[in-house]
Design brief:
Elements lengths: L19 E4 L4 E4 L7 E6 L10 H19 L3 E6 L17 H8 L4 H18 L15 H13 L3 E4 L2 E4 L1 H7 L10 H7 L15 E6 L15 E3 L1 H13 L3 E7 L3 H16 L4 E7 L2 E3 L2 E2 L10 H6 L11 H9 L7 E3 L1 H23 L12 H19 L4 H20 L9 H18 L4 H5 L2 H20 L3 H13 L2 E5 L5 E5 L1
Parallel strand pairs: 3-4, 3-9, 9-10, 11-13
Antiparallel strand pairs: 1-2, 5-6, 6-7, 7-8, 11-12, 14-15
Helix pairs in contact: 1-10, 2-3, 4-7, 7-8, 10-11, 11-13, 12-13, 12-14, 16-17
Length: 514
């Protein structure tokens, strides 16, 4: 029996429309055909655990959680790999390359792996609040240094990388002479060479577009590993190529991530992997769009992020109030994953009300029992309309995972459910088949596929306590760094929403709800 309830696995796919995915590689929707029938390999770029995840990070993980859920619903056996970046030399467009883990470990006066553990735990906690299912495998960059070194050696042996003073770079110009560098992002190498800025510390590269596979560790660098080129640490791009190949093979089905990763990260992954394995690493490339604030991408570089703990507690000045994890999940899913999603308190509050309305309708529907009269008195027009709204949900998911349209249909069905409860619509006006379909549709799509959960909506005391304890710990850390401005801000923001902190004599902190 498959997870979708079909005894013959994916055979039931023949009786419905085919799943079509927008493939960023070809810039069009394509029928999804997995490399191995009945099995799907999916790799999604996970977080860099140098700091706390923010609202912008929530979108890809919620998006690909829904993709994971739906593929399993269709009966596929899915291996979902989502990495943890806990080391690496980052080369981001327009900014000097750096090792973020080492940088922030120094700032927070922590060992690098202490910093990594702290923010990995916090990330896992946030994913739990959002109801995201755990990936099949969650590899770390530091746990796969050997695989990265071996892949770099292969690329060098094939003549597409070179060493300079203990650092190894990928030769983009040589690769582009015989391959399509820019196939994913649409970039033209000649234009990149003309427009790429000269950045400090990159004089040893042959071309400005070349990227680091391995970096020599300077004496003060905290994270370092032995390699054939001396002690150093990996580049950013190589980890995903090495880990996806280890767990999914040289070619696999779906590679996902945020649209901001198309270039340079995913473009560089493609180049490395094609040299190492001789084929395009992923057959379908999926990219979610950004969350913006006032039309600008949310990101640490723009100093406009709202951390997830701040979202849950309301402790960011850009927030009018706290928002539950399920409200945020609902907010994300109300827009198609490829569309821009602009943050505003008004939009989040509308999502909160919409979620409450749909969940109330779902609970009402689950309590209703069919009491029709052998098909007599069926309202054919209403019955057909309800069936159509339900059946369209499958069509919408098969049309590049269009969660926005599914939610729109559930909103259309909500008055029907409320009228069945209130008696304005008599139960016999729907056929028993349609009523059963209605119940199944809400359970399948709202709960199983979109991942909406009751327990997080209601915000039980243990969930609230978890958030508060996290904020108390963050305040303690701020005080230990003598960052009294942040410490006072956390205390004052909590007080403004009715949570009073009390520093106890034994050094602990208690709270009371006003």
């Amino acid at each position: 029996m498959s997870e979708s309830g079909s005894p013959d696995g994916i055979c039931h796919l023949q009786h419905m429309s085919e799943l079509r995915i927008y493939n960023s590689l070809h810039r069009q929707k394509e029928v999804f055909t997995p490399l191995h029938p009945g099995h799907v390999g999916m790799y999604v770029c996970g977080p860099t655990v140098s700091g706390e995840s923010h609202l912008g990070h929530a979108r890809p993980y919620i998006t690909f959680d829904v993709v994971f859920r739906y593929l399993k619903h269709l009966g596929y056996k899915v291996r979902y790999v989502r990495n943890i970046t806990d080391a690496g030399h980052f080369e981001e467009e327009g900014r000097a390359a750096e090792d973020k883990i080492s940088k922030f470990a120094i700032l927070e006066k922590l060992e690098p792996m202490e910093l990594v553990q702290k923010y990995t735990n916090l990330y896992h906690w946030a994913m739990l609040q959002f109801g995201c299912q755990e990936p099949s495998i969650e590899p770390t960059a530091t746990g796969h240094i050997i695989e990265q070194i071996e892949m770099i050696k292969t690329i060098m042996e094939k003549g597409y990388a070179y060493e300079v003073d203990g650092s190894v770079y990928f030769d983009v110009k040589k690769y582009a002479a015989s391959h399509d560098y820019g196939i994913l992002s649409g970039r033209v190498l000649e234009d990149m060479l003309e427009t790429t800025r000269e950045l400090e510390g990159q004089d040893d590269k042959r071309n400005k577009a070349d990227f680091a596979l391995w970096k020599k560790a300077p004496p003060e660098h905290l994270m370092r590993w032995p390699s054939p080129w001396g002690e150093g640490f990996p580049g950013w791009h190589i980890e995903c190529s090495a880990m996806s190949a280890k767990y999914l093979g040289g070619q696999f089905d779906i590679h996902g991530g945020g649209m901001d990763l198309q270039f340079p990260h995913h473009e560089c992954e493609i180049a490395q992997s094609e040299v190492a394995h001789g084929e395009m690493m992923a057959r379908y490339w999926m990219h979610n769009n950004m969350i913006t604030i006032n039309g600008r991408k949310m990101g640490k570089a723009y100093n406009n992020t709202i951390k997830l703990t701040e979202m849950f507690s309301g402790s960011n000045p850009q927030l009018d109030k706290p928002y539950s994890p399920m409200t945020i999940r609902f907010f994300v899913l109300q827009t198609h994953y490829r569309g821009t999603l602009d943050f505003s308190n008004e939009a989040l509050q509308a999502a909160e009300k919409g979620l409450q309305r749909l969940w109330a309708a779902y609970e009402t529907l689950q309590k209703l029992t069919y009491t029709g009269s052998n098909g007599q008195g069926i309202n054919e027009e209403l019955d057909k309309q309800v069936r159509t709204w339900c059946e369209e949900c499958t069509e919408f998911m098969n049309d590049d995972f269009n969660t926005a349209k599914i939610l729109a249909n559930l909103f259309e069905l909500t008055p029907v459910i409320n009228s069945l409860k209130g008696g304005q619509i008599k139960m016999h006006e729907l056929s028993e088949t349609t009523f059963t379909l209605l119940q199944e549709t809400w359970k399948t799509f709202l709960v199983d596929i979109l991942g909406i959960q009751q327990e997080v909506i209601t915000g039980e005391d243990n969930k609230l306590d978890g958030v508060l304890q996290m904020l108390i710990e963050m305040r303690k850390e701020a005080k230990s760094r003598k960052d009294y401005a942040t410490s006072d801000k956390i205390r004052n923001e909590l007080l403004s929403i009715g949570v009073q902190l009390k520093d106890e004599k034994d050094g602990s902190v208690s709270y009371s709800l006003q």
